[in-house]
Amino acid sequence: TELHKANAERLEQLEKLGEAIKLHIDKSAGAFAAFNDFAPASWRDVRGNGTEAQNAANRAHELWEEASEDNVLTGSQEFDNTKTAIDQAFAELERAKTLLTAVDTRLQDLQKAKSTATDQLALVEKDIAEFQNNLRRPEVDREVGKQPEVKLSEAATLVTKARAELVQNLPDWLLVMQ
Predict the structure, then answer these.
(1) pTM (2 d.p.)
(2) pLDDT of residue 78
(3) Taking Cα atoms as reference points, which of 57, 41, 61 lies closest to residue 49?
(4) What is the three-class DSSP state of 168?
């Protein structure tokens, strides 16, 4: 039947996707080791994603096995049930992929923040000093009020907090960048 044939094709696609997700899980295990170089608060929200992704992949594999056994021309031929199992397996693999992508993205964000935070902070400090100097110039219209000075003072306070974070054993690089 057409549904049997469609199921067979999707089972092949599911198997390939499952293999790709397995490789992604293995790769992401290295990301979790790399997280040890960063403040736990900066990656707490993705903690457990690897385990959850593995669980979703395991459920997908079980569904794939079940669907593979059911998608035969002999026996009960409940191809609708097979299709449902395949749909559920694809959804589980998509969930696993989403979880793993969150891990990968967070590690990339942390690495980028670590490599650029100090330079970015120096640029902000330079900008603050430049704007403060501009406000001190006599030709600046005093009608602008105190608001620019207040904002610059707030910015300087944030820079001080960011600098304090940098001296921590494991700085929260995302906090510094923020």
Answers:
(1) 0.79
(2) 78
(3) 57
(4) coil
